[in-house]
Each structure stands twice: as C-alpha cells, then as structure tokens.
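Batch manifest line 328
LIGAND: N,N,N-trimethyl-histidine
JOB: complex structure
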Amino acid sequence: MSLHAVRALKHVPSSSEDQFRTEVFAGLSARPRALSPRWFYDRRGSELFEAITALPEYYLTRAEYTILLRHAAEIARITGIGRALIELGSGSSVKTPLLLNALAPSAYVPIDISGDFLHQSAAALAKRFPALSIHPVIADFMNPFTLPAAVRSLPRVGYFAGSTIGNMTVPVAVEFLRATARTLGEGAFLLIGIDRIKDARRLVAAYDDAQGVTARFNLNLIHRINRDLQGTIPVGAFRHAALWNDYEARIEMHLEAVHDIEFRVAGESFSIAERETIHTESSLKYGPREARTLLRAGGWSPIAEWTDPEGLFALLLASSPSSSAWPQ
Ligand code: AVJ
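JOB STATUS: finished
ARTIFACT:
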C-alpha cells in the first residue's frame, strides 16, 4: 500500500459510523420508516438494556435464568460435559456461569460484535473461572466465521440466549441457524432461548414498562443519531410505542412523531408528519410447535425443551445431525 493510501484511510470515518449513517439515511427515507435494533446498543443503550432485564414486566431474562437454574444439570446429562461452549452474542453475564458450572466446558468461546464489551465480560469470567480456557472472538455471527484453532478438535455446544433470534425475520433466522450448524459442525448441540406467544397485554407490558426504561431505550436511538451523525432531531417530538402485531406474531417498537417535525442528519434534511412512526424493533414470538419447526427449517433436530413454571419462555436443545443419520 502506498503512503498516500495509508494517509487517505486515516480520514475515512470508522466503517461502523459510515454504515450507521448509510442505514439511517436509508431507514428514514423508506416507507414505512425503519431502523435496525442493532443500533440501540451504544454504551448508554447497553446500560439501558441491562436495566430492562431487571424490570418486573420484562420476564424474559428471569425466566431463562430460572430454567437454567433448574435444568442445567439435565442439559449436561444430554450433551455430556467437557465440550467447547460457543456463546453467540455473549455478555449474558448472569446466565453464562450457570452453564459453565453444569457443562464444565473444556473451552469457552464468547462471540460478540462489540470488542469492548466482549473483552470486559471475558475478563470478568476469567476471574470467576480461573481454570477455564476462554477464547473470545469478535465477529458478527450473521456472517460465516472460523472458530479458534484451540477448539477445532473439540465437540461443541452452542448457546444463543435471550430470544435474540426474535429480532430476525423468519428467513433470516433460518439462514442464521443454517450458518450456525455449519460453523458448529456435525454432532454439535444448540441451546437456544425463544420467547413464547402469550397474552398480548403481558407481551406489551414487557416492552412498555411502567418506569419508562424501555421508552428511554428506544428514544436513546434519537440521542445517538443526534450525537454520532450531527442530528438536530427534537427528542421530545417522539414518543415510544410498543404494540403486538398478532398476524406477524411479533412485538413492534416504534418511535412515533407527536407533531410534524423537520430536522437534519449529517447535512441531509428530513421531515416526518405527526403520527408517522419509525419502526425500530421487531421481537418475534413462537408457539411450541412453531419454535421446533423453525429449528428444523434451520437444519437442527429439536431433542428437548424446558420452560419456566409459568410457561412464558422456552429453552430448546437441538442437535445437528451427523451426515450419516437418516432423516426420521
Ligand atoms: C435482546 C432482542 C432479546 O427483543 O426482548 C428488550 C431487546 N427490546 N426490550 C427483546 C429488547 C426492548 C430484546 N432482545
């Protein structure tokens, strides 16, 4: 590379800021307007999400924790101990130790797109589990990635917590599951948390809590646009809206304009009319059979599942068939 090229690169904004601007322009120009929920998670957004997981209305994290508390030993009896544990989208700090204790993995591979967060949580786990060999990988697990050499010869179990799969459309979820099956290889297990369809009021309350933490989480996206993309959006002109879309079986979060607004983002002008919304997140929910069908479509065979006592949330265990297995 020539010196000139190196200099030029220094002035190119970081690729993620570039991508953020491109997606915000596209999302605000589209109809309906929509932004990807992955932009929620700047530092403040990650803190707000942590606060959400402790809310009385947000049952998901507590339910999954309860399931692991009660059933981790049984999970370990099925998978066996000593596998490599590959956590997709790590940082579920409270749940991971329960699995580490039960599965006694010979290696732990947390995978996350945010390097900062990844190294911070890996360091915390290293303190708690000094004998555990930890190999953090910075990657977007939606794209193919290679596992660290240290775990290549070990049998694997993947963990995808929190019903994060709910943020994906069904075709994207299927593609993700297939890519994960390829990465984890033959004879692997996948442990995946999937939130269930339930009473609409219960669902909406989980995404529109009384303390307004989820509202702040949603509105933080406006603050982020203003900060990172020199936006002039009046934050008070938007309100948080959460609704249950029964036909699509998903919770939708929107930012709804409370009056007509005009603003600029990175030099571009935009206008939004009163009551128009920006769709910021979809969180798909699955019934028991639908969840199993989703896993099968993604190349996995469901073999066991557990729920919390109220049946709000499910943790499913699936296996990736070895190539010699005849489909049953
Ligand atoms: C992290 C995607 C599982 O959809 O429940 C929580 C994110 N959004 N409250 C979810 C979220 C609003 C969460 N996931």
